[in-house]
Amino acid sequence: MSRSEHDGRHPGTAPAASSQTGDVVTVTTTDGLSFQYAEGDTLLRAALRAGIPATYECNSGGCGTCKFVKESGEVDPLEPDPPGLTERDRRKGRLLACRSAPRTDCTVKLVAGASWPTGHVRPRRRSVEVIGTRTLTHDLREITLRADEPAEFLPGQFAMLSVDAAGERAYSMSNLSNPLGEWQFQVKRVPGGFLSPQLVDELRVGDRICLDGPYGHAHLRPTSRDVVCIAGGSGLAPMVSVARGLASRGDAGARRLHFFYGGRSEKDLCAREFVDEVASRLGHAVLHEAISEAPTNGWTGNRGYVHELVASYGVPDLDNHDIYVGGPAGNDRRRRPVPRPGASRAHRKHPFRPILLRTNNGIRARDHVR
């Protein structure tokens, strides 16, 4: 997903203008594919908009999945030191497609899938209107946006939001695809953050912002397995979308949902209404909550981090569940206790990580989103 707002790094910025007349250049891959790049995009997004299934995860420079090598032409990096690139990558001339802008016609060695992912909609940029806001906690705000066409995305995917041309951030949708064109987000205020204070404190009904999406591979899979959702902080949004997606299926009455949510204190907990919303349509739905700090308002529930709560609860037959995780990187400690050398910067600077840990086809997708 996107970079953490308190990491001290520059926000995602729009690419500089192409130096080639007409501001449109042609990118050709070493596999013989080609697509057009227009000013204001990135190489990755131009490929995705053209229907080329380029490999990626975060779309923001943190994960390193979209590495490529320029064979010819001119390509500008949009960020001098993205955490998704190691020193070895730089020595080998690798760049990140999500943080690069072609300046001339070019040829690149770009990793791409054999076919466009089933159910994925090609991302595009659109203007959206704020039609509703709601306070969920002291620092978490629900924001509903409306576009002029139906909203199409998969439960758990994300979009890039921007208020002006200065930069953007990635946020997961909390609702489902709908013909009304509504995109709903849960935005957590990060003190000193680049965008979240504007979205939480300043955005008003009637305002218009830019939405680019959908993106992401960590979405609800069409399996028959029961589901475990694990969320912390604003990682709640994609997990709410996954839970709503599960409850909307024809076999929902036979499906079971275990929803784990953690916060620092009691005032951070707000998952109850969302689990209650889907419970009547599922065969079984239960919410497990925990706080990590000392209680201040008579809290008698679970204490500790949410991943510890999952381990202590002991979901029966856990290996036969689809497991989805969204929130601080600590939620994933049971699978990755120590960041790999060379990737540690990305883990430190991208603490919000919606992750699909396991399905019956072995998929492990990760999207660095908030």
Question: Order of strands in the sheet with the most strands?
Answer: 17-16-15-14-18-19-20
SSE series: EEHEEHEEEEEEEEHEEHEHEEHEHEE
Main sheet characteristics: 7 strands, mixed
Radius of gyration: 20 Å
Give the number of DSSP strands.
20
| Fraction of residues in helix | 10-25%
Structural class: alpha+beta
Distance between the termini: 7 Å
Please tell me what the overall shape is: globular
Chain-averaged pLDDT: 85
This entry's quaternary arrangement is single chain
| Binned strand content | 25-35%
Q: Can you give a write-up of this model?
A:
The protein has 370 residues and is α+β, with helices and mostly antiparallel strands. Helices cover 14% and strands 30% of the residues. It is built from seven helices and 20 strands. A hairpin with a 4-residue loop joins strand 1 and strand 2. Helix 4 packs parallel to helix 5. The longest helix has 12 residues, at 236-247. Residues 1-11, 13-21, 329-354 and 358-364 have low confidence and may be disordered.
Quick description:
This protein has 7 helices and 20 strands. It is α+β, with helices and mostly antiparallel strands and 370 residues long. Helix 4 links the parallel strand 14 and strand 15.
Name some characteristics of this structure.
370 residues; alpha+beta; seven-stranded mixed sheet; six-stranded antiparallel sheet; 7 helices; 30% strand; disordered N terminus
Write the layout of secondary structure elements.
Blueprint lengths: L23 E6 L4 E5 L4 H7 L17 E6 L2 E3 L9 H5 L2 E3 L3 E3 L3 E5 L13 E12 L4 E7 L11 E5 L6 E4 L9 E7 L7 H7 L5 E8 L10 E7 L3 H12 L8 E8 L8 H8 L4 E8 L10 E2 L2 H8 L7 E6 L17 H6 L5 E4 L6 E2 L4
Parallel strand pairs: 1-7, 14-15, 14-18, 15-16, 16-17
Antiparallel strand pairs: 1-2, 3-5, 3-7, 4-6, 8-9, 8-13, 9-12, 10-11, 10-13, 18-19, 19-20
Helix pairs in contact: 4-5
